[in-house]
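Example (one chain per record):
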Amino acid sequence: MYKFPKDSKLNDPKFVFGVATASYQIEGATNVDDRCPSIWDTFCTKPGAVYKQHNGDVACLHYHLYQQDVNLIENLGMDAYRLSIAWPRIIRPDGSINQKGLDFYDRVISALEEKNLTIMATLYHWDLPQYLDDKGGWLNRETAYKFAQYVEVVSSYFGDRIDFYATLNEPWCSAFHGYRDGKHAPGIADDKSGFQAGHNLLLAHGLAIPILRKNAANSKHGIVLNFNPVYPADEFAIDVANFAEQEHTHWFIKPILEGEYPETVYQHYIDVMPTIEDGDMGIISAKIDFLGVNNYSRSVIDQDGQYPNYKQVHLSDVERTQIGWEVYPDGLLKLLTDLHQFYQLPPIYITENGAAFEDKVVDGVVEDEQRCRYFQNYLSSVDEAIRQGVDIRGYFAWSFMDNFEWSEGYKMRFGIVYVDYKTQKRIPKRSALEFREYLIARRSGF
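Predicted structure:
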């Protein structure tokens, strides 16, 4: 059972514990009920883009097994569920509404409501409709306005039934992995494209906020950003580490909270900066009610030639997850307290935190002891951040269950629930059972 000091805010039933997923990673049923292809359907067919050319066609069959999954979330004692809504299921290429897509999410939300689970819905978790990519995707400013139209449809339909609306998940990944280094869909590798896509994504976020406020006045509205706290390799790397932090941490949060991009990064990359129209920064910096923070590891940075060129250092003799990320819970504490120092923050929810390991089923049981330690230590960092004054209101484990892990395919298992992809059987791992034991004890007042 996870344990925290008796006076920890994590022990307060008002602190929300949940699990998180994303549509393309779990739903499958990609050709069901008039869903349109997404950029990830296309990217998965590109040789070498995804491990063993895995794809999301079947995934966890959540589209058909959602009731079973909701029952399991409740059984694990969770307070909340963070899902994402698939844009390709909602808006057809001609701009008309696909009622079958809305009906699916209506069924899921109704099932969650029956269990009294708090609902957080991410409106864009990377599955851009392919028909929009055919017109330039996030390099096309018009995509931001298409997103606003999609948000109007979803939020006017569900309104306050969704407790928390997150506009985007990790625009850093969508922009920089999708358009700057090509590791994710649509697979473009170009600095200018990366920065332009990032700006258009943030514009989409800003355009969506007033729509959400209009249609779901009693809900909370925000965005989910991913962060790796940056550490210098030594005292000679402090300046380049600060630059790397500006480029990757502050490039996406500063426009949202303060209406401007970091000046040092803007000037260094002046030749590849995005087209910014009058009024854009005012739109992007629309007030948000919460900030979703995703964190898994840290970055150690060293100088690489002339300032501000830098490289990431791969440390030896440190604990790592299967995907190669260092286990460093103190990094989450540093991240949260640094953000608290730099900005006037809205309430924070840890919307993703977790680890992939080589899980095995032995006699019907998955003993993921390393993941249990990971959660214990990272949650202890959350507790300490709260003690240091950071307003953190909830924590969502990534992920509810094993799923399609983007370019890693099904190789990486992040779930607290094991999925046998051949039979679609779900098996709660030891980490899930420890969450359940803790959450049940918390509700009973220990």
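Caption: The first helix runs from residue 23 to 26.
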